[in-house]
Amino acid sequence: MQIIAGMFAALTFLGPIFVSLIFAQKHLFNITPSIIVTLSLIANHIVTSLSDITKFQTSIQSTRILRKFEVVNEQILPLKKKHINRIPSLIVTDLSITLENKRIFSHINLRLNPDEKILITRKSGVGKTTFLKAIAGIIKPSSGSVKLGKAFLTPADYTYISQNVWLFSDTLRNNLTLFEKYTDQELGMVLKEVGLWDELPNDPLEMIIKEDHSNISGGQAQRIAIARGLLRKKQLFLLDEITSSLDNENSDEIRKLIYSLPISMIEIAHNYDATLLKKYHVKIARFERNGLKVEKY
């Protein structure tokens, strides 16, 4: 594109001057030196404009990957680093959802204290995922509010992870940082925290993740997503069926990792290990269309 634009620009610049000189020499169309100068200035303006277009085209191509972040449905947009010691309680008040004139759920209330974890379960199709997306702001509720303390919850406050982790064909470094600035020490620390540093090949930050993710396992992909949240100092994790495509062993390892972190968490899950939840003091709640029923161990 740049070569073609350059050739066309040169032709645009020299063509009028060359033709004008011929016309002036043969006394055609009353071409004068002043007209030649004017044409030269016009041609120069055209060349400059073409050069700018070429630069814009290069910029568009170079930011293609970054612009993909804007349509990702997992709330993994590049966010400013947020250093907080302790988040307030998450307060869900009178949350209701109606889609296409169909009531999905109504008047759901939930209070999640700092470092508290809850697993919400029920059969498929009752609105668990819709509830989590409403908390995250992915779906707008028909009524009710979601606040972190006294402020409304925003994407800068949480990490949202679904069963299908979004990764792109690039280095592990860029998949973690999303092209924000972090030191190698910060990246190494979160990789060690999720158990990937020693598990991946030498120099893991420069490891290229294939487009089809064939060189990493499902459990490793989930841990990369967790590391993204830890890197940004997120203390609220919203998890939607993140272990549904994993075997029991990997599911347990992912849950042990998350449950041991000093974070607040809401997990949506169909299958779970009650013994593991009890060990890590994770509450279990049954999702009903008109409320959450917290179970006792």
UniProtKB/TrEMBL annotation:
Superkingdom field: Bacteria
Sorted alphabetically, which keywords does the UniProt record give?
A: ATP-binding, Nucleotide-binding
List the SMART domains hit by this protein, alphabetically.
AAA (SM00382)
InterPro entries attached here? AAA+_ATPase, ABC_transporter-like_ATP-bd, ABC_transporter-like_CS, P-loop_NTPase, Type_1_exporter
GO molecular function, one example?
Answer: ATP hydrolysis activity
In what residue span(s) does the ABC transporter domain sit? 90-297
Name recorded for this polypeptide: ABC transporter, ATP-binding protein
Origin organism of this chain?
Lactobacillus helveticus CIRM-BIA 953
**Organism lineage string:** Bacteria, Bacillati, Bacillota, Bacilli, Lactobacillales
